[in-house]
């Protein structure tokens, strides 16, 4: 009769298995929370581009009109230091608004809302589970993982499944080297990883809360509430700015007329 010897796990080995199971649960939770944060940030980024295209472009036009008026006033009063300062500030604001609006125009107009597919979400979860920087205790390895996660977040926000898949595949082909061996060293690594993941989970909660209470997120919520009521809040805001532009142009007519008369007198 054959007998099979079953070796019992040592206390250290039992503790090691316990910590592995604990870390596995935390890894899954971490991947899900990172997905929540990345999705929220991507949604707000797309909304910001939409805001800049619809509302920001009008602000850029309004700021340009105000800058031209301020510059005309400065030319009418070349010895007025305050007028010169006002013109410089108005021009700087106009240039900043124009730059922001131009950046939004370059973004894809089709990206009205960020709607990641389930397959994209699944890829992101797997990438975060395997590559997250807080899953290593080595400083150099942590930096390497951080750089890869930056690329992963970019691919996720762009909705580029092929790019995300390639990043994950490249990572899997480049296994992490283990410098120290033995149950004791592995147990220490696991304990530290668990602590790092716990800290990151707390940090994610803080980041998500900060994003949710930001002015941009609050505006997005108001816009979505208005949409449920059949209103286009962004277009309403744009229409109000159009009225401001019209009023500013009327104000500018007198300033420009005085400047033209002054230039005409100089030419005579």
Report what the structure shows.
It is built from eight helices and no strands. Helix content is 81%, strand content 0%. It is mostly helical and 268 residues long. The chain has one domain (20-175, 182-217, 232-242). α1 runs parallel beside α6 (183-212) and α1 packs parallel to α8 (233-267).
Question: Radius of gyration from the CA trace?
Answer: 29 Å
Unreliable stretches covering 5 or more consecutive residues: none
End-to-end Cα distance, whole Å, is 123 Å
Count helical runs.
8
Given helix and strand content, the structural type is mainly alpha
The major β-sheet equals:
none
Mean pLDDT: 87
Q: Topology, pairings included?
A:
Elements: H1 11-76, H2 81-106, H3 118-131, H4 139-158, H5 161-172, H6 183-212, H7 215-228, H8 233-267
Helix pairs in contact: 1-2, 1-3, 1-6, 1-8, 3-4, 3-5, 4-5
Briefly say what this structure is.
With 268 residues, the protein is mostly helical. It is 81% helix and 0% strand. The longest helix is centred in the N-terminal third of the chain and has 66 residues, at 11-76.
Main traits of this protein?
268 residues, mainly alpha, elongated
